[in-house]
Amino acid sequence: MSQNIDLLKKKIPFKWKMYMRYYLSEKVELPISKSKPKVIVTLAANYGNLGDVAITKAQVKFIEDLFPGHELIKIHVDELNSKLIPLRRIVNSNDIITIIGGGNMGDLYEFFEEYRRTIIDLFPNNKIVSFPQTFDFSESSKGQVSLSKSIKIYSKHSNLHVFSREPLSYRRMQESFKNNSVYMVPDIVLYLDNVDPQHNRTGVTLCLRDDKEKKISNDDKEQLLDLIKEKYKDIKYYDTHIGDENFEKESADIELDKIWNNFKKSKVVVTDRLHGMIFCAITRTPCLVLPNSNHKIAGTYYQWLSDLKYIRFIEKYDERLIIDSIDELYNIDVTSSEKLNLREKYEPLLEALKD
What we know:
Helix content: 40-55%
Number of helices: 13
Radius of gyration: 21 Å
CATH topology of the largest domain: Rossmann fold
Mean pLDDT: 90
Number of domains: 2
Strand content: 15-25%
Oligomer: single chain
């Protein structure tokens, strides 16, 4: 009996599950003006992944800079079930729906893609702009089923603009979403400038992942950590993922300032996290970057950051090369480096939103 119920649940479209949850729960009234022009940020991050929190912050800033006269509305991930249906009743056809950028377009984080499909399905008459993402549908049967669902939903929307953040994702989006407008711009966090205030720098900060996206083996990681700790006595640890239990939703800016200031006080950051590298780029912090399990780090580095002398990417694990590179970065003078400025690269995103 329970197996039959589980099968039935799987067959119910995600959109209708959302409707059921909404009607079975206490109704939410949104204090939003129907007449004022609006830009909505959906799937906004209010959880312990500081990369996603920074994406939300940068996306909000980009929109506020572009539309100072519009009302900006954030719908966080954990609010979608209660707020998406009432939002549908308030938006006008000229209001703009945006979907958060990041690395969750694919089957690795399937529930994010389910939400993305539902948002696109629920607002067929609004311009929808999906901010720069990594396309990461796997070749597994699960991944291809998920991709087929997305293609079906995306292709029905006549005013959907999908942005990639590196070349491989751009090509795959073009191949898959042929009925939609597809573009490439940098990760939206690279729109931010956080070089100032500057601090005295000491030691090495390690920002290494320990999840399903890591590429370096546990043995290699432990050996590398031992070598770094032996040579550099001042070692700090700071991950871009601090865990939901350590994250207070009202303190998002405080948590971002903590990690940015930690990086700005470091001589070198060693990371295999995309936003570890990006946080170093926007704070002008020397950074040694190792690969992760997919193409998002390599693609972002080679397309947007390879000219920065204080960011170095090593594609394959090479213990000696890593240590030598840390030595070189440790002694680099970043004050002579120009600030990163990629703002002109966001012109396609600006035009898609304004057009």
